[in-house]
Write a structure and sequence with these properties.
95% helix; mainly alpha; 0% strand
């Protein structure tokens, strides 16, 4: 009877070993799947970063172009002014308008950057 218990005990160990071995065999596959999913998410985030970077760059170029055009318009107007009072008014108007433009432009770029950050982390939240 002792021998029978030993055999049963051995069978139990084999079942446990088989289960453990099966789980161990599955671990590399799970790890590979997780690594692949992580790499796909990184790739997706990288693509969004590149797209958003281009969008932000284009927005900044548009803003610089607008600012330059407005500066030249103010200089042209100043060269055609009749007296120093008109030059001062033109300069004052330009500075006020440029300040407003700068605030608007900073807000626009800030919003793009915030969206950029949200889009970059979205793949990792899924």
């Amino acid at each position: 009877m002792a021998r029978s218990i030993g055999k049963d005990h051995d069978c139990g160990e084999n079942v446990a070993d088989s289960s453990t071995t099966s789980r161990r065999a599955q671990m590399p596959t799970d790890f590979q799947d997780q690594a692949k999913a992580g790499a796909e998410k990184m790739n997706e985030a990288g693509q969004k970063i590149a797209e958003q970077g281009s969008t932000i760059g284009a927005k900044i170029i548009d803003q610089v172009e607008t600012n330059t055009r407005e500066a030249f318009a103010a200089m042209r107007a100043a060269t055609q002014a009749k007296d120093i009072t008109e030059v001062m008014r033109i300069q004052s108007d330009y500075m006020r308008d440029q300040g407003n433009r700068a605030m608007t432009q900073a807000r626009e770029v800030g919003e793009l950057i915030m969206q950029f950050g949200k889009d970059a982390v979205t793949p990792f939240k899924q």
